[in-house]
Amino acid sequence: MMKKLLSLSIVMMLFSAVVAQNEAQHYDIHPKFTHHASPEEKMMIPYLSQQAHLRDGQAPMAPVTAVAEFQPMSGVMIAYPLGIPVALVRELSQIIPVKVLVNNNSEKNEAQNYFSSNQVNMSNIEFWVIYHDSYWVRDYGPWFIIDGQDSLAVVDFTYNRPARPNDDASMIQVANNLNLTRYDMPMVHTGGNYMADGYGTAASTMLVEQENPYETTASLLQIASDYLGIDQYILTIDPPGDYIAHIDCWGKFLDVDKVLIGQVPSSDPHYSNYESVAQLFANTVTPWGNHYQVFRIPIDLNASNATPYTNSLILNDHVFVPITGNVHDQEAITIYQQAMPGYTIVPIMKNPETPWLSTDALHCRTHELADKGMLYLKHYPLLGSQSLSEEMTVMVNIKALSGANLVTDSLLIFYRINDGEWQSSPLVELNANEYGFDFATLNLQNNDEVQYYLFAKDESGRREKHPYIGAADPHVFTISGVGVPDVEPMYVCVFPNPATDYVTVQGEDLSDITVYNAMGQMVDRVSSEGSRVMTISCQQWPKGVYYLNIRDRQQRTVVRKVCK
Fold first, then answer.
1. DSSP summary character for residue 313
2. Quick count: other Cβ atoms within 10 Å of Cβ 423?
3. Between vectors from CA 104 to CA 42 and to CA 372, what angle results, nearest 5°?
């Protein structure tokens, strides 16, 4: 017991000494800090974890959705003095507002002069006077969520660099400047080791477990669920096994079902680690029900010019990719173009004064800012091989977080069959915020390939597509097994419709009923050994539109819609 008390005292004394030193020198940031943790910071991590563990914060109202980097953004945050080339600031300022953290008005004036002399679009620059210790805004910056009240909010965490208290504290002011509610998540973490897909999946290296020794893996998963809405948290090894262990050094979600993973030569001693992680994602089922499309991009751990290609920044329809003059630069750009058709890929050359490193490039030194008033589309697409049924309704949840009304005649589905001309049809309102379209109305035939995307507009002027890039990279499915039934069709009667307490299905030799909500997620299931009548309770289902998949013991299927 004495040893534990003594250790804690030493940690606290070291912490106080470092904070005091920081307060005296917080303007002189470049010589003082490195991207990695100092030995003193590493020793203080258990203390941070203990304090985070004891924190009794208020979690957001459920359901919570973590916002992905590839969802709608209204700005980007950087810090001054710069850790990025001014050329990147210039490029960013052409497409989106840039929020610049400065420590004081002197730095603000200096930055204004520097940016103006380098053709930065100053109409898109806003300075926030917020004390900060370093330019790694990715690592201490805000994580965005949509809470249960359909409002954008910020989730803050305990930054895993305890000698940089201004970095950690800056997010209070950032949330205030954005006029967003901030939730203090009881976990030690860092933004470079976190990526989310907007559908309840996130990924990090096992560093998050190592830096939270006062939590079990189960409790960490629960915290991620409560604060971020994460129901599938992929915790993986760090393939290079380097000092930083951040996932953005070798991996990146490009979409809900696309992930970019680094690839080293087979002669590299880390080769098997990279292949193991790539296979992990290839074997994982995405929230859309398919497996990840895994794109590989070259990483040369021994190159004199780093290959930090996964350390890129997605901002709406642009992707900013760090390049270094390495022989793989053009190959990396080509891979991004193949993986993200329709996006503008912008290569950014390193700055000799603050060069790109394999473990530290432009993603680490920038942070996207989610659109507070985003037009939010959530849709579980039809993908792969689909059997044509009496109903093939695709559903989309559309919400204008700005509070603006939707433009109902601009809620559309665009589709084409077998690479024909694009056509459009209106989406039909099915319930509050829920819209749909039935592909069964198109008289599809066996082997037809269907490409489609969804479009919405609201009165704030926002326009969004799903998938985000639209026609250049649409959802795709193929019709199979049409018109050749192996058995006689099964007929059932489903009542009442609408229902509030129970739904009854009457038919012949019934076997099981599976219930799906409007987004395609399974919500309930009942089975029997063969009945003429089956009943399923719907008292606990939220009000909405549901689909019943009904089978008999010969595995014949009929699908009927039930509306509450």
1. E
2. 12
3. 80
Greatest CA separation for the chain = 82
Whether the Cβ atoms of residue 341 and residue 118 lie closer than 8 Å to each other: no
Q: How many CA atoms lie within 13 A of 427 on its CB side?
A: 29
Cβ–Cβ under 8 Å, residues 380 and 521: yes
Predicted TM-score (pTM) of this structure: 0.83
| Residue 134 one-letter amino acid | S
Instruction: Check: CB of residue 406 under 8 Å from CB of residue 458.
Output: yes
Tokens of 376: 């939010």
pLDDT in tens, the chain (564 residues): 333 333 333 333 333 333 333 333 333 344 478 899 999 999 999 999 999 898 878 999 999 999 999 999 999 999 999 999 999 999 999 999 999 999 999 999 999 999 999 999 999 999 999 999 999 999 999 999 999 999 999 999 999 999 999 999 999 999 999 999 999 999 999 999 999 999 999 999 999 999 999 999 999 999 999 999 999 999 999 999 989 999 999 999 999 999 999 999 999 999 999 999 999 999 999 999 999 999 999 999 888 899 999 999 999 999 999 999 999 999 999 999 999 999 999 999 999 888 999 999 999 999 999 999 999 999 999 999 998 876 789 999 999 999 999 999 999 999 999 999 999 999 999 988 999 999 999 989 999 999 999 999 999 999 999 999 999 999 999 998 654 444 455 667 787 767 778 888 888 788 888 887 655 567 788 887 777 888 888 887 777 667 677 877 666 565 444 434
Nearest Cα residue to 288 out of 226, 223, 380, 191: 380
The residue whose two tokens read 């018109």 is: 483
User: Using an 8 Å Cβ cutoff, are 85 and 91 in contact?
Assistant: no
Q: What is the DSSP letter of 38?
A: P
- Tracing tokens 């393939």 back to the chain, one arrives at 239
Q: How far apart are the first and last CA of the chain?
A: 61
The residues assigned a catalytic role are 364
Number of other CB atoms surrounding residue 271 within 10 Å: 14
For residue 135, CA distances in Å to 62, 83, 171, 217, 376 come to: 33, 6, 13, 31, 31
Q: Is the dihedral of CA 146, 517, 71, 314 positive or negative?
A: positive
